[in-house]
Design a protein that fits this description.
alpha+beta; Aminopeptidase; seven-stranded mixed β-sheet; 31% helix; 24% strand; globular; binds coenzyme A
Amino acid sequence: MEGGLVSREVISFAILEGRYPTTMRITDLSRDDASGITQAANLLHESFRSRSSAWPDIGSAQNEVILSLGSPKISRVALDESGRVVGWVGAQPQYDGLVWEIHPLVVAPQSRRRGIGRALVRDVEALVGARGGLTLWLGSDDELGETSLANVDLYAGLPARLSGFRSGGEHPAPFYERLGFHLVGVLPDANGRGKPDIFFAKWIG
Ligand SMILES: CC(C)(COP(=O)(O)OP(=O)(O)OC[C@H]1O[C@@H](n2cnc3c(N)ncnc32)[C@H](O)[C@@H]1OP(=O)(O)O)[C@@H](O)C(=O)NCCC(=O)NCCS
């Protein structure tokens, strides 16, 4: 296993210290961990069902989790004191490993705003950086009209629209900006008319 599980967990403990009980840990999600896979799938389905058409049922969420497993991909879970999955993040290499995409990221609703999402992203950053990645990015859909890039003509005056970007509701844009990601682009109508996918990226080299 790349990097060694023990050293990976030490990184995660250090990050979480002071933000959450130190018994919280982040570790690989294993193909053999049927319970972990099911819990991660449940988190995905429950968290996105009112926000996105991506995972309409448990089966599609379970497929997404299974697709995240196996080298060279990264699939990490945050476990609470009792071993329950309270967060999950996946990442996959692109451009010969110079670029990595976070997909997906989710924290259990009752465990949000406690630093777990930040710890999962920091954990991925450390792993990707150790593998020589330079750029970490993600696409964040806006299917609910929560940002200034929804329901507008993105082919007209796009630079001004990007520099004037705003978000509201539960859109995670402010979360990624807090973690040092930059708005780097948008794909018009990715989820239907007026429902773009919004791209954020961060240099980690
Ligand atoms: C986005 C998500 C992963 C954030 O996880 P989290 O554990 O609540 O985030 P953290 O507690 O680590 O927050 C880190 C910082 O971002 C801020 N933040 C988190 N969510 C935010 C939001 N929706 N709006 C504004 N700020 C937010 C926190 O206040 C914190 O700020 P600080 O630097 O002042 O401490 C979580 O809300 C989630 O799972 N949402 C549903 C799924 C989703 O949208 N995933 C992302 C798809 S692209």
